[in-house]
C-alpha cells in the first residue's frame, strides 16, 4: 500500500477514537478494523484534536448524505476514495445502489472487512484514469461523496474528475472537502499526513473555479465543525477545540463545498 493509501488510517483512527468515547460518531466497524489492523501513528496523526475533527467531518458527510437520499429517491450513491470508511453501514443503503470506489489495493484490503450484496458494490479504480467512470452504471441521478480525497489531485485533475461525473449523469449532487492553498503550502511542513510519508497536496480557494466547463453549479459551503458536535466535547477540550479548530480559523485551512450537476 503506497503512502497516499496509508493516509486512510488517519481518519479511521479518528472515527474509532470518538466512537469508543461515545461522542460525535458511532462507528463500531472503525473500532473493529483499527483493533485488528491499526499501526503505531506518530506525531499529529494520533492527536485527539485531529480525531475529533475527523469524527465531525464524517458525521457532517453522513448527515448530508441522508438528506440527499430522502430527496433523490432515484439516485445511485457513489463514494469516491472510500478507504476503510463504514459510511455504508452507518447510513445504510436504504435500498439504493451504493458504489464504494478506491485503488485496487485499498479495495482488496477493504474486502477483508466488508461484503458486497445486491445493493452494495466495491469498485477498483484510479480516478485519474478516465476509464474509471465506465465501471459505474448508467443512471439519471447520482449522489457523490468525496471525503478526504480532493487534496491529492492537482486542480486540473480534480476538474477533469468532475467533468467525467457530469458527462456520465444527467443530474447529481456532490459534497467535497478541500484544503485551501494556504493549507496546501503549510502541509509541506506541518500536516498529520506527513507522518505516513505524504507531502504533496493541493488547495482550492474559490469553489467556483472548479465549475467552468464541468456542468456543475456551486450550491453552498457547509460547516465542517458544527456547534452541536463541538458541544459534545467536555470542559476545556470544548473551549480549546472551538477556538483552534472551529469557525474562521478552521476555514483558513479547510473548506466543505456542495455542488450540483444540471
Structure notes:
The protein is an alpha/beta fold and 262 residues long. The chain has a single domain, classed as Vaccinia Virus protein VP39 (Rossmann fold, 3-Layer(aba) Sandwich), CATH 3.40.50. Helices cover 40% and strands 17% of the residues. It has eleven helices and seven strands. The chain has a seven-stranded mixed beta sheet. Helix 2 (9-21) crosses helix 4. 41% of the residues are buried.
Descriptors:
alpha/beta; seven-stranded mixed beta sheet; 262 residues; 17% strand; Rossmann fold; globular
Please sum up the structure shown.
The chain is an alpha/beta fold and 262 residues long.
Strand content: 15-25%
**Count of all domains:** 1
- CATH topology category name: Rossmann fold
Shape category: globular
Mean pLDDT: 87
Spans of at least 5 consecutive residues whose pLDDT stays below 50 are 1-5, 191-198
State the helix count.
11
Structural class: alpha/beta
Amino acid at each position: 500500500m503506497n503512502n497516499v493509501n496509508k493516509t486512510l488510517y488517519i481518519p479511521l483512527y479518528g472515527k474509532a477514537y470518538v466512537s469508543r468515547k461515545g461522542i460525535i460518531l458511532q462507528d463500531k466497524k472503525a473500532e473493529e478494523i483499527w483493533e485488528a489492523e491499526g499501526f503505531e501513528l506518530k506525531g499529529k496523526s494520533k492527536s485527539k484534536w485531529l480525531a475529533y475533527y475527523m469524527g465531525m467531518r464524517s458525521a457532517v458527510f453522513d448527515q448530508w448524505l441522508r438528506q440527499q437520499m430522502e430527496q433523490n429517491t432515484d439516485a445511485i450513491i457513489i463514494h469516491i476514495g472510500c478507504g476503510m470508511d463504514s459510511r455504508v453501514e452507518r447510513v445504510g443503503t436504504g435500498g439504493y445502489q451504493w458504489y464504494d470506489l478506491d485503488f485496487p489495493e485499498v479495495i482488496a484490503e477493504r474486502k477483508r472487512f466488508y461484503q458486497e450484496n445486491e445493493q452494495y458494490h466495491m469498485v477498483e479504480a484510479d480516478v485519474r484514469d478516465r476509464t474509471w467512470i465506465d465501471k459505474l452504471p448508467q443512471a439519471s441521478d447520482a449522489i457523490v461523496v468525496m471525503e478526504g480525497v480532493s487534496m491529492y489531485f492537482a486542480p486540473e485533475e480534480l476538474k477533469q474528475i468532475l467533468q467525467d461525473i457530469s458527462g456520465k449523469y444527467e443530474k447529481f449532487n456532490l459534497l467535497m472537502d478541500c484544503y485551501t492553498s494556504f493549507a496546501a503550502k503549510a502541509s509541506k511542513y506541518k500536516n498529520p499526513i506527513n507522518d505516513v510519508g505524504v507531502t504533496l497536496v493541493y488547495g482550492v480557494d474559490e469553489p467556483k473555479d472548479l465549475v467552468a466547463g464541468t456542468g456543475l453549479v456551486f450550491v453552498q459551503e457547509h460547516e465542517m465543525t458544527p456547534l452541536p458536535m463541538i458541544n459534545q466535547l467536555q470542559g476545556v477540550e470544548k473551549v480549546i477545540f472551538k477556538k483552534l479548530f472551529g469557525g474562521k480559523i478552521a476555514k483558513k485551512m479547510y473548506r466543505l463545498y456542495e455542488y450540483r450537476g444540471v
